[in-house]
Design a protein that fits this description.
The chain is mostly helical. It has ten helices and no strands.
């Protein structure tokens, strides 16, 4: 899997990737930087190096289907980052700190203006139930994965869920503030603002 702290795959690997994958990665990058409505099909196809017919071959509903696939791909990268950060962590706070540092690195590599790949794609897209539900499902997968790690690291189930939700509320707000300030240190310091229940060390 591509390093999730890399802004975009190397040009050589992008050029040799299957057309469907090129379309998804191009869409994820463009939607993240320009939003769904700010990205035109001609630009998307040019970045992907794909003919127009291939878009509708792989995504019958065109841009909207591609947006759903691109946000899923971006979400999978986030899930990989969560697991990589929490798997070796000795505590939930330590894992959350690593997530913050990895995301700050990603923010720097992307140029300090990119939005959250899921919200920039789905919240700015068509106002329909499919986009809303997909966004809800993807964010829930991040929270659920983080809550599982929190439980494994000693938090009771309800507290683990609350800690995971609070963490992602912080991350979403922190990412926006970092964009305004063009300063990844906002993200890097988010873990210091976490409200953590005391853990039983007996």
């Amino acid at each position: 899997m591509t390093d999730v702290t890399t802004a975009s795959p190397p040009a050589s690997s992008q050029a040799t990737a299957p057309t469907r994958d090129r379309l998804i990665r191009a869409a994820a990058e463009l939607f993240r930087n320009k939003g769904y409505n700010g990205t035109g099909l001609a630009e998307l196809l040019a970045v992907a190096g794909a003919p127009k017919g291939s878009l509708y071959h792989h995504f019958p509903n065109g841009k909207s289907d591609l947006a759903l696939a691109a946000s899923t791909w971006a979400s999978d990268q986030m899930l990989a980052l969560i697991d990589a950060a929490f798997a070796p962590a000795p505590s939930f706070r330590a894992g959350a700190t690593t997530v913050c540092y990895k995301l700050a690195k990603l923010f720097d590599k992307q140029g300090k203006w990119s939005g959250c790949p899921v919200s920039a794609t789905l919240f700015a897209g068509p106002e329909n139930d499919a986009f809303r539900q997909h966004a809800a499902d993807l964010f829930e997968s991040w929270i659920a994965a983080t809550a599982r790690h929190a439980q494994r690291l000693g938090l009771p189930q309800e507290e683990a869920r609350a800690a995971a939700e609070n963490f992602y509320i912080l991350l979403q707000g922190g990412w926006q503030l970092a964009r305004v300030r063009r300063d990844s240190d906002v993200i890097r310091a988010l873990h210091t603002q976490m409200q953590m229940p005391p853990q039983n060390t007996d």
